[in-house]
Batch of 2 targets.
Target 1
Amino acid sequence: MLLVLSFAFAGPAYELLRLRDPVTCLDLGAATPALREELAALTEPAVLPSSVQVRASVCLTERFADDPVVHAQFGKWMLDSERAGLALVVLQRAEALPRAVALDLARQALTSGNHRVVAYSQAFFVRSGEPVVAEPPPPAALPAP
Amino acid sequence: MRSFLTLLMLMASLLACTGTAVEDTRTCDGASRVETMALTSDKSGVVEVPVSLGPNDASFMVLTEGASGLLSTDGAVNQDGEVVVDWSDWADSRESLTNAFFASDEVSAFNWPVREEDGALTEGEWTVSASTLDDDGYPKAKQDVDVTVIRRACLGAKASLPVTIAYAGGLENDREVTEAVEGAAELWEGLYAALGVNIKVSFIGVDIDGSLPEPLLGGEDYAEVYEQVGDGVVVVVGNDVAGEADLYGEAGGIPGPLLPSSHSVVAVSWLIHAGGNAAFDDSELQVFAETMAHEVGHYVGLYHPVESDWSAWDALGDTRRCTSASACESALSTNLMFPYPVCGRNCVEQTKLTDGQVAVVLNNAGVR
């Protein structure tokens, strides 16, 4: 972990994401070849200022919307109250993700212990026009007991 | 010889008395006088704005608005016809004095003086020149503009800046957010008070979306929000600012306009400051307070002492001209207007302004 963090703090993405001036996620791509790994490291709780964690999660959503590794990370945030801020960022930008992924994350978020994450999830369902509760699969598709 | 010396002493004492008497006649209550006028640019796209200055006036702001296309402010001439400031002296400079010299849509806000070294205002008829421009920045002739001139008297012992914090997106009903904002505002009040500026904060809710557009680029609801408040600086708190760019916050200008327009607010995001767990700790509250103070600092005329490419600076004599990250962090990391929070295991508190920076704040016509 220490190695990862020291890499992250020294990295070009960190240098850009801590700025008060506008920085786009596209700018970050030009700054570092290992963007996904650097952004993932910057979402760790030890990274200061903590605003960098939030901005890194924005750029993961914007730049790696189709990446299954990133989707798995998002799934963990939906259920972890200590990562609620990052879950909110993902839910706020869920339209950038593949629809099936977005719906899956939003459904996971409904079970979060954080009231704000639940509210953002519900707001996504309202925006998307999808039912809040997942339709159960037809009985024939259920695995045999 | 002795009688000659006595005469000299008498004259000196008379002069001293006269000097004191002149100062005593000024009414330094920070009061503002607002004048509006409708003008038309000439065939070169130039608008000459008359600014009549009285003995008490210590600063003024000229706001030019209303033309289709772009607007800029070009400079000022004093009562003796002397050029006090001219945009061309700053065009190629690596130092920044005011955004009024740059073309902007809807409104150009020019405050004078900016710095202590710009000198005090002198009584008489001044002229401020503005330009009406097309979308490519070329002069646009015969454009009708509305001009507002705010003249502010010299300040009394306690300068103050009225601030309204406006909650967007229903956040006024979110107790966790309002508690954090009130806590940050209290820290900000203390921070400015230590610098000699008292802010008077009030809170309202406004019926606009919680995803806030960049005030520098303009937000369609911001004019109405400022209209609702009608005075001072408005800080809008939302869930995020500028979408993907996800800013800590942004000011609508350097300086920002002191009348309703799409640029007339400072926008800040609560969510970005609350960090990965969306719950404020003391350190995050401190950075949130510093963001409010920093962005309002821009709104009242302050630039970053150094930009983050280390090759552009503010125009002040007492902020260090550093040219590298290590040198600038070493010299300026505690400065409120530093371009980013400086953190290791903890973040450095950024609460300081130089005397030159404080003078810029106090020269803003919005500070009374």
Note: Confidence is low (pLDDT under 50) at residues 1-8 of chain A.
Target 2
Amino acid sequence: MEKPIPIGTTVVMERTGETMEEMYVNMGPQHPSTHGVLRLMLKLDGEYIIDCIPYIGYLHRCHEKIGENRNYTQIIPYTDRLDYLASMSMNFGYVLAVERLMGQKIPERAEYMRVILAELQRIASHLIWLGTFGLDLGNFTIFMYCFREREMVLDLFESVTGQRLNYSFYRIGGMPMDFPDTFLTDCQAFLAWFKPRLPEYDAIMTDNILFQKRVQGVGISPPQVAVEYGLSGPMLRACGIKWDLRRNEPYSIYDRFEFDIPVFDTCDVWARYMVRRREMEESVKIVEQALAQLPPGEVMAKMPKTIKPPAGQIYSRAESPRGEIGFYIVSDGSPKPYRYKVRSPAYVNLSALPEMLKGCLVADCVAVLGSVDIVLGEVDR
Amino acid sequence: MTLKLGIFYFLAAFTVWASAVVVLGKNIVRSAVALIFGFCGMAALYVLLDAEFLAAVQVLIYVGGITILLLFAIMLTSRIGSTTARVVNDQVILSAIAAIGLLVGLIYASTSGIPAMSGPPRLPETAPFLGRALLTTYALPFEAVSVLLLAAMVGAIVLARKD
Amino acid sequence: MMIFATLVERFYAALAAWGIPWIVPTLVVMVIVVSVVLAYISVAAMFMIWWERKISAHIQVRYGPMRVGGWHGWAQSIADGIKLLLKEDLIPTGADKVVFVLAPMVVFGATVAAYVTIPWAPGLIVRDLNIGILYMVSISSLVVVGIIMAGWSSNNKYATLGALRSAAQAVSYEVPLVLSLLGPVMIAGTMSMGKLVEAQSGRWFGVLPGWFVFPQIVAFLTYFTCALAECNRLPFDIPEAESELVAGFHVEYSGMRFAMFFLAEYANMFVVSAIATTLFLGGWHGPWIPLPGLPREVAHGLFGLVWFQVKCYFLIFVMMWLRWTLARLRVDQLMGFAWKVLLPISFANLIVTGLVLILGKHALLYVGGIAILLLVAILLAARPAARTVRVGERT
């Protein structure tokens, strides 16, 4: 247990080695706005942030090492726990990597199922982000609205997988079972309910002048910084860079759908907000198209009892709600990976936080951190 | 009348105690807090003198404005919790002479009596009279004070701007 | 009108007839009045807490408290109060104990003291000071002192930051607040709360009630904005922003001391609403009919009491509504808003009011009308702008 540093104490900054007399504020790991157990050391000059050091690792659980001691199928439930707000996308990214390593084709219907579930998951994940982001800015009501809609998505997932958070529903080679009979109508009912809700969010957030004042021009990450830090997902698209793996490097069947990649170039919290806000619309479009095209047939390819990919290595990436989720797998031909590495988007995005925070006010810290949309399960692994 | 006198002595003692804490206190924030109580005591004394307007202004300006700014400034400077201010400095003899002189003057005034101290005229409302006096009889001093404040403000802005 | 004054006088006379010194009935009356006010504050604050929970719940598609006490959880606040009373009384080790203990008392005391000049109904006012409104404003400015004491004495950085913000906010918003109150005071020519209400008894052009809100709409809106800041309500709840400063100045407080802050916050909401009602919304004025079996004065008083409460609670409702709809402003934006927007507006209002008062009373409503038109124009101009702002989109 560390002792709190009294105000005005001379502290040596671990990273830069300089001494200072500025006020130090330790934010987290038990702070309501750090979205989990993240600890930020803020170096303040009055209310202005001069520097910030994120301390991570409170949720570290040796994900990659565990992966090396499990067979390929057993890893799937562990990937759930990476980004527990978007388990489907994590499963998707992982099974994609193994299938690519094996050169495995999967049935058409399973591809559609994967896309539908992943895009619904993207909506759910962005909803929870929108809600907590509103909470960070002091708007409690949007939180409740978003959770209402997220519950409906979770109900859909429950009807398909029996789970509400950690689904482990994707398998190497397809899906374990088909949609239940009611799913199609339920999903269409949800989309019909959800589409008119988006203008409601606009009324309470997007069009609110107070909200705009809070997020515009705050937490700037110039495109160059974004690229240098390797940001991905909405964080990158908010810097005016049109990069979405679903479009630039189409995996699964994403090349069959019509959808836009929302891009904003103001590089601030507002741009990140708007990108995610628009992405929900695009996800709805994708789900609608996929539901319309959903072909009948098998959902699982013929797979061997034990999955043994040929010796070799692969880096495979997919677009999770938070950005590029990459899996690097080295196989030696045995049922267990020789090396298993995860490139998690939130971890990389978080690394640019000090850049974005410099010169901001303490109050903006929460907004900027919220706009990064971190999930600590994925940051710490 | 005795009750009023009792209240006066109580308030006076309270104000003197608070002021003593302001001057003698070692912790600067505690001094500032005591200053608030001192100002409130003064305001209560004004009420006793039927000068309610003055009392309210005293609380509004001195407590609500000046002391809060004072506390603000103290908190913004670092090392608030640990520091203990020095109570006595090099000017102790000078200030002692001034204080004793003031005490003598006050004692002389209260024993020999000053005409103005005979009971004030009872006015139903003091505020209109104050306002009228400030804008007619004492217009020039009033304006002079505003110019002084303006100068102080300009000075503060010049000091605060860093470039 | 003077029913209560008459009662008190009779009480004095009765005791004087028995040869009891006058100090005794004075003290008795004081104690009774203070108890009534305190009881009202506690009950009203508890009601407001429950009410706010229900309002927020219904705004957020929830139910809110439903269990305690049966009907819509009406006893929730009582249960919470008992819980807070029974809690352990904690004082942090590094805290400045004297100041820490004193702080909630200062906050609560300042809030309660402001109830002295609230004109509840015709003749029903604890003390109609001739500087009533000034007294209320200056007494409520003491709340900030308590907040700073709490923040500093807790020896907690979040609390200190909260106190700092609170001080900055209070100093900034006190100025336009007092200036906006000067408009009605100038029209009525008095600072006494009772006389301010009486000055609003007429009608504008025989149609509109003679409330000062019509000629002084700008001042009213300025005042209400500043009042939100004064109460630390959203969008100005920066001193206690839970997502940034955890809970701000009262983060180290628990149990009864926390409850005192909480009660004072709601009591303060009522005070600022009461000021707005008295100065702008005609106080206890409202339609009334003589009740059968009651003297006219009593009936008028009862109706006045009800009208005053209705207006106050309407304003409180608006405050709660805003709280659960808006996002929080940032510190520098808050300061900028106070100094760059509200202060010039209230000065302009003051100048216009003064001019109109000198030029003639009938011009009052023209100015009010122009102000309303301007305001509507601004709102209309701002609304589509807000809708179309999609800065930086590049699909």
Note: Strands of chain A lie at 11-12, 19-20, 23-27, 39-45, 48-55, 312-320, 323-331, 337-343.
